[in-house]
Amino acid sequence: MHIIVVGCGRIGATLATSLSLEGHDVVVVAQDPDSFERLGSSFNGVTVRGLGYDEDVLREAGVEHADALAAVTSNDNDNIMVAEIAQRVFGVRRVVGRAYEPSSEKLYALLNVDSVCGSRLASAGIIEMLVSSRIHHVMSIDGVGLVRFRTSPVVDGLTVRAAQDRFGVSICAVTRAGSTFVPPSHGVLNAGDVITGTVMENDMTGMLELVEAR
Asked: What is the number of domains present in the chain?
């Protein structure tokens, strides 16, 4: 995949390096050239200096044939502008924005753009959104991540309590056949259910086993 990362702070550099190591074609856009020093020696992508919401800069980064773009600067307004331009002007298929303030998530929702709020979950959540779209929404509050995803066949027939114990996710709600409900602990889950729940952001391994592969 050709993926553009706008912003090269801690999150942007981690994201770009991780995606590069996974074999993706990564271009990092940042206004401050010194920020590129955060990219590790294992990063084998391309860097472009400039403002991420400048259409000419995005074209230089290859936005016209990009598969995905992550807007992860330190400014919410800049990220929202980048996301809107990438989606509406250039038609990028997968766009994810970094939200520093929870209120910014409302703007992303209006744009129909996935967003991630919370620094420690940001890299993992954005990669999932960009590459596989498996996690539909990620938010972090005081070390706890709020997630929403479609379940894999491994959950079929398990009770809510068993799934929570096995995968480390507290299940808050289940969406099935267009209806959302709060399941009892003895309720049985089906493969393909959409779960809204919480997970400790320093341990997502179990949860990822539960998420439907795409």
From this structure: 2
- Kindly report, residue by residue over 5-16, the tens digit of the pLDDT: 999 988 888 888
Q: Of 87 and 206, which is predicted with more confidence? A: 87
Which among 183, 192, 121 has a CA at the least distance from the CA of 152?
Answer: 192
Residue 140 lies in a domain: no
Q: Is the Cβ–Cβ distance between 60 and 6 less than 8 Å?
A: no
Strand pairing category for 25-30 and 2-6: parallel
User: Who contacts 57 (Cβ-Cβ below 8 Å, separation ≥6)?
Assistant: 29, 48, 50, 51
The domain boundary, picked from 110, 135, 160, lies at 135
* DSSP label at residue 11: H
Evaluate if pTM is beyond 0.85: no
Residue 131 pLDDT class (50, 70, 90 cuts)? low
Q: Any residues with CB less than 8 A from the CB of 153 and at least 6 apart, and which?
A: 191
Q: What are phi and psi of 181, to 5 degrees?
A: -145, 160
**In a shared domain, residues 102 and 203:** no
Q: How many CA atoms lie within 13 A of 201 on its CB side?
A: 20
